[in-house]
Amino acid sequence: MTPELFSWEFATDPYPAYAWLREHEPVRKTRLPSGVEAWLVTRYADARQALADQRLSKNPVHHAEPAHAKGKTGIPGERKAELMTHLLNIDPPDHTRLRRLVSKAFTPSRVAEFAPRVQELTDRLIDGFAARGEADLIHEFAFPLPIYAICDLLGVPAEDQDDFRDWAGMMLRHTKASQGGPRGGVARSVKMMRGYLAELIHRKRETLGQEGSDDLISGLIRASDHGEHLTENEAAAMAFILLFAGFETTVNLIGNGVYALLRNPGERDRLQASLAAGETGLLASGVEELLRYDGPVEIATWRFATEKLSLGGQRIEAGDPVLVVLAAADRDPERFAEPDALDLSRSDNKHLGYGHGIHYCLGAPLARLEGQTAIATLLRRAPDLRLAGDPDDLRWRGGLIMRGLRTLPVEFTPQQN
């Protein structure tokens, strides 16, 4: 029997439905709740092929868009706010040029330099609830950590960062917009963020060369001033997408990851013993496994066929939207042994959690750093961490692209800061 997709029950545990699709209809045309028809790709081999296929464009201009689907395949409000020219919406050569400019902020050495700041933020957030012995790990920990980190990286002044946190919160609370629900909250937050970024870019252009101007937005401005032809709209769009894509993925990595560890006490005990012994190998492989097992991005962002092509035995027409289901591909038994089991020491783990090909997630090194730091510090400072309440009472945010919990209430022995 064909499973029901995109219901609230499906959001709670989509993996049985994805298993059915992998076996029976691995490339399936589906009408989404928004009314848009798109191909869902669920097998690992097909997914990897699609992610790297240059005939599948990221640019929405290639969508053969019917009237009822207008504006429903991107981030609400980004078109009106002139924020379309970012890495998730463009192809080479523009993609190559913009990615080269921004990638300088995510080199291994730059991310390593940022590690002490991530640790400082992590400790400060845990200090805020350690003495209570209870917390909502989403709202008090997993959500603010990447927001403040990406604001620091972009160069958002400390006095403005709470505004960014509010705008990001509006996006999280209204993620069902991608399923055809209310879109106003996300669009309003995008509009406010666009206005702020325009003003911030203007201020930073006036202070280039002064102390403290080595942030990412200043770097984008320098690039535009040194012949790279980066327009103000491009700079604003790049800053916007780094925030938009860079915070929710990490929120879900931390939230989904901690929840998976709480549901798998044997693996959690292994990790705690490894950390207590001063080892980091299991932490590194463990975060990769958490990305595979219940990753932050359920479905890769939209792609559109630029010509007729074959995928998984199906004929895709020019203009058709294609959605690669990362969550399904990463549990494909043809690629992963015992895919529904959490194994923190899994070695052969070329998961697709951060994509594949030229659109591989630029911020993956920073997200991994934040995930490893957050999980290790939390287990060290709250060693008896446990879920507060019934797991059946937890709710997942309804959305098409991201997968994450609305709340994650936990309790532990109160700790002195």
Structure description:
This protein has 417 residues and is of the alpha+beta class. The protein has one domain (74-297, 334-411): Cytochrome P450 (Cytochrome p450). Helices cover 47% and strands 8% of the residues. A five-stranded mixed sheet has the order 1-2-8-5-3. It has a three-stranded antiparallel sheet with strand order 4-10-9. A two-stranded antiparallel sheet has the order 6-7. Strand 6 (309-311) and strand 7 form a beta hairpin. The longest helix has 32 residues, at 232-263. The protein is globular.
List the helices and strands and how they pair.
Elements (H helix, E strand, L loop, with lengths): L7 H5 L2 H10 L2 E5 L5 E5 L2 H9 L3 E2 L36 H10 L4 H20 L6 E3 H6 L1 H11 L6 H13 L10 H23 L9 H10 L6 H32 L1 H12 L4 H14 L8 E3 L3 E3 L2 E3 L4 E4 L1 H4 L34 H18 L4 E2 L21 E3 L6
Parallel strand pairs: 2-8
Antiparallel strand pairs: 1-2, 3-5, 4-10, 5-8, 6-7, 9-10
What's the short story on this structure?
The protein has about 425 residues and is α+β, with helices and mostly antiparallel strands. The chain is built from 15 helices and ten strands.
Distance between the termini: 54 Å
Q: What's the average pLDDT?
A: 86
Q: Compute the gyration radius: what is it?
A: 21 Å
The general outline is globular
Number of domains: 1
- Give the neighbour order of strands across the main sheet: 1-2-8-5-3
According to CATH, what is the topology?
A: Cytochrome p450
What is the CATH class? Mainly Alpha
Structural class: alpha+beta
- Regions with little confidence, pLDDT below 50 for 5+ residues: 174-184
| Total strand segments | 10
Tell me about the largest β-sheet: 5 strands, mixed
Strand content: 5-15%
The CATH superfamily appears as Cytochrome P450
The topology string of helices and strands comes to HHEEHEHHEHHHHHHHHEEEEHHEE
